[in-house]
Amino acid sequence: MSKKPTIARIWRGRVKRERADEYEAYNYEVGTKPLIEKALGVQMLREDRDTESEFVTISYWESIEAMSRFAGSDPTKIHHLPRDEEFLIELPTSVQIFSLLHSHGNTGGD
Description:
With about 110 residues, this protein is of the alpha+beta class. It has one domain: Alpha-Beta Plaits. About 30% of the residues lie in helices and about 30% in strands. It contains three helices and four strands; from the N terminus they run βαββααβ. It has a four-stranded antiparallel sheet. Strand 2 and strand 3 form a beta hairpin.
């Protein structure tokens, strides 16, 4: 029986628009790939604006305990990537954690 996600952990960060493609590739290799190995699912979103791009990474977990095994005892604490300070306009101070109430249809992705 496959595990069912009950928790969504959401991280947000903004970069200057001219560095968005570079950050997207870096974030995927260094940040998203490790999540893919541990979480039940991962989505990486990007919104381009005139001068900046916002990235949102959503990871799905079967429980707070499972998420804590990956993120540490305080799953809201940010674990910055080595080059985040170089790329991000400001370093996020926390993530959001939501209980997943309903999920319907195809959410896309690979």
